[in-house]
Specification:
By secondary structure, the chain is α/β, with parallel strands linked by helices. The protein is about 35% helix and about 20% strand. Belongs to the aldehyde dehydrogenase family.
C-alpha cells in the first residue's frame, strides 16, 4: 500500500472498500487536487456498524484489558514505523507547518495509544464491604465496553484528535466506526492501514469517509446500531448530533468550540507573556479550539503589549509547510477562508482598529491559489461585538485593557463558550484566586497547550459535554456494573 495514497478508501470489516461516489481532496497550500476520496453511502455505513457489532460478539468482545493493551502497543509501533508517511499525509491535508506536525501531532498519536493501553490494563474495579442483617456483604464493580462507538473527528488536528478517541475506545474493549472530516482523509486512512497490518480483528476498527448532512456523518449519528457517540467539532454540529441521538438516549461526549481568553497582568514576565499569547493566538493558523481569540491586558502595560504583539505578528513567516523557519501555514480550505475573511470585514464594520493583518498575503506563485490569510490583531471593540463573542477559528485576536480582578473575571465569563483560558502573572496567589472563578474546563497559568493526558479535558456551555482524559476517558468509553454478594 502506498504511504500517501491518492485514492482514499473506506475500511469496513477488515477490508478496504471503494465506492462509485467520490469527491476531491484539495490542497489548501495551492488549491491543487491531491487525491480522490471514496464517499460512503448509507448501505456502507450500515455494513460498518454491523461489522462492529459482530466483532463485539466475536473474540474481541472477550479479550482482557491486558490483551487489548498488547494490541494498542502494536498499533503505536505501526504508527512509529510509518511516522514520515503520517507526517506527509497530515501536512498535505492541512497545510500545517511540517515541523509542528512532526513534533506534536504524530507523536501525540503514538502517545495516545500507549497511554490508554497502560491505563486500561492497570485500571481495576472498586471493592466495598459492609455489615448487614444478612451478614458480611461485599460489593465490587466490573467495567464493560459499551459496544459500538461512533467517532466523528475534526480537520484541525486530525491525527491527534482521532487517536485521542480511538485509543481509549479500543482500550475499553469497544469496536469503533470512525468518520474523519472530509477535509482530512489522509491520516485516518493510513491509520486503517496500520490497524490492518497490526492484525486488529475485522470489524473492530471501521472507517467511513464523507460529509455531514445526507452523508456518512448523518448516516452514522442516526444509526440505531451505535451505542454511544463522541464528536469534536463545531458547536452547531454538536447540537444537530445531540438531536439525532436523543431518541435512543445514547451517551455522548462533545468537545466543541471555544472563544478562549488570555489574561495578562502587569506583574507578568512580559517577554514570556508576549511569546505565550502569540503562540496561543496563532498556532496552527489559529485553528485550534484552545486558541486565545480574546486577550485582556492590565491597563498599565496595554499599549506596550499591543506594540510588542504587532511587531511579533508582522514578523511571522507565512510559507510552504516544509519551508525553513515557517511559522504560519494556510487555513484548511477556501471555504473556511471565506468565513475568516467575513469576520475581518465584520470587525471593520463594528469599528475595530486593525493593528496588523486583516487581509490575504500575496506571494506571486502557486500559493496565491491557496487558503492563506494574514495573522490579525484587533483592538477597540466592545465585549458585545460579534467579533469578540463569536468563534472565528483563524489567526486572530482582539486585545482589550482591564483594571481589576473582578472586572476581568466577569469579562472572561461573558461568553456562550467555556473551554479554556490562560493567565500570565508572577503572583501565584492571585492566579489561584482568579482561575478558580473562570467558568471553563481548563486554565493555564504562565503556559498554554500543556496537558497531562491523565487529567480531565472538556468544556462548559457551548464548548461541550463531558470530560475525557485518563480515567475520565475510561469512564466514558465503558459502563460499570455493581455486583453485590451475600457469601
Amino acid at each position: 500500500m502506498s504511504s500517501c495514497p491518492t485514492l482514499y478508501r473506506n475500511y469496513v470489516d477488515g477490508q478496504f472498500v471503494e465506492s462509485a461516489r467520490r469527491f476531491p481532496n484539495v490542497s489548501p497550500v495551492n488549491g491543487a487536487v491531491i487525491g480522490t476520496v471514496c464517499e460512503a453511502d448509507a448501505s456502507l455505513v450500515d455494513r460498518a456498524v454491523s461489522a462492529a457489532r459482530a466483532a463485539m460478539h466475536g473474540p474481541w468482545g472477550n479479550t482482557s484489558a491486558t490483551e487489548r493493551a498488547k494490541v494498542l502497543h502494536a498499533i503505536a509501533d505501526g504508527i512509529e514505523k510509518r511516522f514520515d508517511a503520517f507526517v506527509a499525509a497530515e501536512v498535505a491535508d492541512t497545510g500545517r507547518p511540517e515541523h509542528q506536525a512532526r513534533a506534536l501531532d504524530i507523536r501525540r498519536g503514538v502517545q495516545n495509544f500507549r497511554t490508554f493501553a497502560d491505563l486500561a490494563a492497570q485500571a481495576g474495579g472498586e471493592y466495598f464491604d459492609m455489615r448487614a442483617a444478612e451478614g458480611d456483604i461485599f460489593s465490587y464493580t466490573v467495567r464493560k465496553p459499551h459496544g459500538v462507538v461512533a467517532i466523528i473527528s475534526p480537520w484541525n488536528l486530525p491525527m491527534l484528535l482521532l487517536t485521542w478517541k480511538v485509543a481509549p475506545a479500543l482500550a475499553c474493549g469497544n469496536a469503533v466506526v470512525v468518520k474523519p472530516s472530509e477535509e482530512t482523509p489522509g491520516s485516518a486512512t493510513l491509520l486503517a492501514e496500520v490497524m490492518h497490518e497490526a492484525g486488529v480483528p475485522a470489524g473492530v476498527f471501521n472507517l467511513v469517509h464523507g460529509f455531514g448532512v445526507d452523508s456518512a456523518g448523518e448516516f452514522l449519528s442516526t444509526h440505531r446500531g451505535i451505542d454511544t457517540l463522541t464528536f469534536t467539532g463545531e458547536s452547531r454540529t454538536g447540537s444537530t448530533i445531540m438531536k439525532a441521538v436523543a431518541d435512543g438516549v445514547k451517551e455522548v461526549s462533545f468537545e466543541l468550540g471555544g472563544k478562549n481568553a488570555a489574561v495578562v497582568f502587569a506583574d507578568c514576565d512580559f517577554d514570556k507573556a508576549v511569546a505565550g499569547v502569540m503562540r496561543s493566538s496563532f498556532t496552527n493558523t489559529g485553528q485550534v479550539c484552545l486558541c486565545s481569540e480574546r486577550v485582556y491586558v492590565e491597563r498599565s502595560i496595554f499599549e506596550r503589549f499591543v506594540g510588542a504583539m504587532k511587531e511579533r505578528a508582522e514578523a511571522l513567516r507565512i510559507d510552504y509547510p516544509n519551508a525553513d523557519g515557517v511559522e504560519i501555514g494556510s487555513l484548511i480550505s477556501h471555504g473556511h477562508r471565506e468565513k475568516v475573511l467575513s469576520y475581518f470585514a465584520l470587525a471593520r464594520d463594528e469599528g475595530a482598529t486593525v493593528v496588523c493583518g486583516g487581509g490575504v498575503p500575496r506571494f506571486g506563485d502557486e500559493r496565491d491559489n491557496g487558503a492563506y490569510v494574514q495573522p490579525t490583531i484587533w483592538t477597540g471593540l466592545p465585549d458585545s461585538a460579534r467579533c469578540v463573542q463569536e468563534e472565528v477559528f483563524g489567526p486572530v485576536c482582539h486585545i482589550a485593557p482591564f483594571d481589576s480582578d473582578d472586572e476581568v473575571v466577569a469579562r472572561v465569563n461573558d461568553s456562550r463558550y467555556g473551554l479554556a483560558a490562560s493567565v500570565w502573572t508572577r503572583d501565584l496567589s492571585r492566579a489561584h484566586r482568579v482561575t478558580r472563578r473562570f467558568d471553563v474546563g481548563i486554565v493555564w497559568v504562565n503556559t498554554w497547550f500543556l496537558r497531562d493526558l491523565r487529567t480531565p479535558f472538556g468544556g462548559t456551555r457551548l464548548s461541550g459535554i463531558g470530560r475525557e482524559g485518563g480515567r475520565h476517558s475510561l469512564d466514558f468509553y465503558s459502563s460499570l456494573t455493581t455486583i453485590c454478594v451475600n457469601p
